[in-house]
């Protein structure tokens, strides 16, 4: 039996930061439980290789949605990190704090202490951002953030096209003004992915009062309605990791509700159906699941300046070697270097559409590239009204949960997505893109009516992998 003051389940973005901060003064002992293994190697550490770890069973839990009824029954991949650093070790490395009004809405709903003014000091404490807006950004935190180099002229064209289309620009969307077109920010430092494993967990593990336990969390052990530890499976043995003060569940938006339900905390009827003793009837656990969907609007490039010429094996090998030995070159960026946050209409309170621009026409997971030079914008509404659930398949902790996003179940989502497509076309039609703009690859110039756009959305909308739940006590 291992024992500590705090036991944290999960070494991802929340768990790693908590381990670092809770152990900082040396007064508390901390154990971090992580089932995944090391993040060593180029597939994780090289930013340009981002499409690999989210498709590797070694690093990804391999979750999938149930067939989505409003997307033609499609099953969508739902990657979650199974490695130290969690999903921060397999994500796209685009750094977005969230709009101030999001936090203010939480406070308005009763989440005292979560207003934008309350959380800003913690954001500043978290980061080191060399050229951020003074007074709004941190300069000596463990998480390094930078703007991408934007050497490819298509990035400048995208930002200028947004301005020509009548939108604002912003120098720092994580500062006082999110709204506008500008440079995207990356969790990349000295040519490497700067995950929470690199920023928080590895420094914390150098302390004598922090340890990492490799094991699969089966359930939270309860005694007299109080969490006293975590039952894990490690080396084919069931063990107890005991918490003297607190058990902290930081196992992702999927595994956290799953683990709570396996421990008897969740919707009572559902727990009984899976032969789990009810400790606390909490209908909100696993409910109110939300995500950002996005589409890739792709355009042919008339000039051979995109990353298409770098997709062959020889170029990839040269890029990898330059990164491995020099930590320089194209391997040091995620290539999401320009983007935007805009409002969809007059009267909308704050930005509700997000863009990421990429100088190549390819799927996010790297599996399907257009046959030629192209560029694309990833675009989608940020505040979908659709809600989903996570539920257990059984009481077996090893069985993957049922994930039902219920994407596009609200009629407003269809309206909003059609607007996103038409808006992206308007941006690509601006003079800034005239030297580069060829034919539209996707959806294609013949796709114009609401019905045709809806068919494209139904077939091609993909998750942006931004899963979250409303607080369990709400709703």
Write the layout of secondary structure elements.
Blueprint: E1 2-9, H1 13-22, E2 30-34, H2 42-45, E3 63-64, E4 77-78, H3 100-108, H4 116-126, E5 127-129, E6 143-147, H5 153-164, E7 180-183, E8 185-186, E9 188-189, E10 192-193, H6 196-205, E11 210-214, E12 216-223, E13 226-234, E14 237-249, H7 252-262, E15 265-266, H8 268-273, E16 280-281, E17 289-290, E18 293-301, H9 313-326, E19 338-342, E20 353-358, E21 374-381, E22 389-391, E23 402-404, H10 411-428, E24 437-442, H11 450-460, E25 462-463, E26 468-469
Parallel strand pairs: 1-2, 1-14, 2-11, 5-6, 15-16
Antiparallel strand pairs: 3-4, 6-8, 7-19, 9-10, 12-13, 13-14, 17-26, 18-21, 18-24, 18-25, 19-20, 20-21, 22-23
- Please name the CATH architecture of the largest domain: 2-Layer Sandwich
Number of strands: 26
CATH topology of the largest domain: Glucose Oxidase, domain 3
* Helix proportion range: 10-25%
Please tell me the overall pLDDT.
96
Which spans have pLDDT < 50 for at least 5 consecutive residues? none
CA-based shape: globular
- Strand content is 25-35%
What value does the Rg take, in angstroms?
A: 23 Å
Q: Structural class per helix/strand content? A: alpha+beta
Supply the number of helical segments: 11
Largest sheet: 7 strands, antiparallel
In the CATH scheme, the class of the largest domain would be Alpha Beta
Per CATH, the superfamily of the largest domain is Glucose Oxidase, domain 3
Total individual domains: 2
First-last Cα distance? 38 Å
Give me the oligomer status.
single chain
